[in-house]
Amino acid sequence: MLLKINKFLSSDDVSLIVKENFAIDDDEFLDETRLDKNVLLTGEIFKTDDSVTFSGKIEYTLADECARCLQEFDNRIETKFQAAVVQKEDMESDEVQMVITDGIIKMDDTIKQLIYLSLPMKSLCDKDCKGICPNCGANLNNEKCQCENSLTDSRFDKLKDLLK
């Protein structure tokens, strides 16, 4: 995945709009993340007297499992980022860095790093997902549970008297 910006760097333009589709060809990475190989990179590169920065976002899809109902679904993720375009990577820097060599930025490692940082810890198939019944295990999105709704903790029986 190469992003060629040598014409932009030698021009008088201050910014460059970027919209690129990349295909990740690292099978081990794709298997580990359950990621679709196509990634969309959009954003803008800004040039000042002493620095070049990239402000953009990546969009990708991965096969995910809902944390509530345990159903598999395609999770579309967008993540925004800011990156410094540098000649040599500074290992002590906290910011995301894109290394440029002869007007070309190799995006492989940067894209993978951004994907790892943006992977959700807990995913939901829908914000209104009802989950599964803790008693019988029925998916409450697809069917009504046959369990009694009167499952209570006997320690709270005295509180029911307050509602009367």
Number of helices: 4
| CA radius of gyration | 24 Å
Span from first to last CA?
A: 68 Å
- Sheet/helix structural class: alpha+beta
Compute the average pLDDT.
87
Q: Spell the H/E element sequence.
A: EHEHEEEEEHH
User: Helix coverage percent of residues?
Assistant: 10-25%
* Spans where pLDDT lies below 50 across 5 or more residues: none
Shape estimate: elongated
Strand order of the largest sheet: 1-7-6-5-4-3-2
- What is the strand content? 35-45%
The biggest sheet amounts to: 7 strands, mixed
Assembly classification: single chain
- Into how many domains do the coordinates divide? 2
Number of strands: 7
List the helices and strands and how they pair.
Layout: E1 2-4, H1 6-10, E2 15-23, H2 27-33, E3 38-47, E4 52-65, E5 72-86, E6 96-101, E7 104-106, H3 108-118, H4 157-163
